[in-house]
Amino acid sequence: MRYYNENERLKCVVEISTLVTESNNFFEIKDKIIEKMLDVVHPAKACVNLFYKNNYEHAYLVCSQTLDHISKVFPIDKPIGVKINFNEYPKYIHEAVKEQKVVYIENVFSDERALDERDLAIKEGYIGRIVFPLIVNEKVTGFMTCFLTEQDKISDDDMNFISSVASLISLSIEVTSKNNDIQILIN
What we know:
By secondary structure, the protein is an alpha+beta fold. The protein has helices at about 5-20, 25-40, 70-75, 90-100, 120-125, 155-185, and strands at about 45-50, 60, 80-85, 105, 130-135, 140-150. It has a 6-stranded antiparallel beta sheet, sandwiched between helices. The radius of gyration is 16 Å and the shape is globular.
């Protein structure tokens, strides 16, 4: 396992910030953001889910390229993502969204909040999962989850870095949303 120094992380945050500030469309840069993040932190995989128009009945999976089983069950065929009933997500993801806080499940096989996802964890090859809510104007617009194998170790610095990336993703979502609103007004 390779450990990254603070300069490499800072460089990555700058690169992601540049992507966000140069784009007005989150869907065009979402995969690049996740790739860059995974270049310098240890989670094996990550994905982003969004809520549209403050509707928390469904979450839309918009990033799945790092996933194996999930992307076969829910293939991404359009940028808006695959609509998934939010009740299908584990309890701790609901907790992260409702309380607007990061939730770290170190072992899905020993945490009761993850009981419903154990089959998925086996198929997808992960043991732990971290949920980072994506917050825009004090509302959760989605969440990013990082999947951890037994070999993956997450430090406090990793958590801070991923939280920074989640903030940049939130900013990108906000810019895209405002840009779409302006486009609707123009039309």
